[in-house]
Amino acid sequence: MTIVADHRFFQNVGFGSVHKTLEAIVWHIEEVDHLYRQADWNNDKAPDRIGVSLDKVIIFTDAASPGNAFKDETTDDEVFLKRFAGVNTTGSCVAAVFTFSDLGGTFGISYVGTVCAPKYNWALINFRNVDGEIRQRAASVITIMHEVAHVFGANHDENETRCLPAGQNNGADNGGNYIMYPTSAFGLYENNHRFSPCSVESIAKNFQDAKRTRCMIDRSPTAAPSRRRRATKRDVFRYSVRQNKPLKMGVWSQMVKANEIFAYSKT
């Protein structure tokens, strides 16, 4: 995945710190990867271990940062998402922008079935709650899961009873509704972290198309400081500020696994 953190995310979720911005990004992608790897796409009753990993991270620290395609304010989520056209995401299976914006209550938006496409494989993830506060991390994880699943080929769970165990009230009945229920969930119920049979069928069908999976690679689980294994020197990433000047990142330089990480400040 390519993750773009705009200046709003940097200032509000990352508290104006590149280190804290990276921590937030890595934590969320680690959780999303862990949950995706539990999914069974071929119905053999075993996890298929298909997850997500960081390929490139771009952080814009200011609206005036060079190349910041998301610098202008808008309350239109579709307009915001289409600004990805100004970002080079070539080679990424999925590209997502993390923001903290007033988008009229929208927490996420993406295109359906565009994984591995040269463009439109984009997702918008909004970390701003309707009250102007930062959303709970558990809720944001589900939003990322939801939008990435759209890119993978899943539609909303809204037409078939078998995929709406809690009905339209989205309550606790029968374990709650699944990840692709149209309304955002807080992760309170068991099914909130699972894909419905409808989603599994749609995504599995998309994965059978070689064009949809050409960007996917075999890998071991992503290194994480709190889970799975201790990082080694092989996990050191590239980090650049402004004119690609190297900067030592301390402990995170040994714990984040990504090919490239760039932070752009205003000149």
UniProtKB/TrEMBL annotation:
Assigned GO CC terms: plasma membrane
GO molecular function: metal ion binding; metalloendopeptidase activity
Enzyme active site: 147
Keyword Hydrolase: no
Binding site for Zn(2+): 146, 150, 156
Protease listed as a keyword: no
GO biological process terms on file: membrane protein ectodomain proteolysis; Notch signaling pathway
Keyword annotations: Metal-binding, Zinc
Matching Gene3D superfamilies: Collagenase (Catalytic Domain) (3.40.390.10)
Occurrences of domain Peptidase M12B (ranges): 1-220
Protein name: Peptidase M12B domain-containing protein
Gene source species: Ramazzottius varieornatus
Encoding gene, per UniProt annotation: RvY_17191
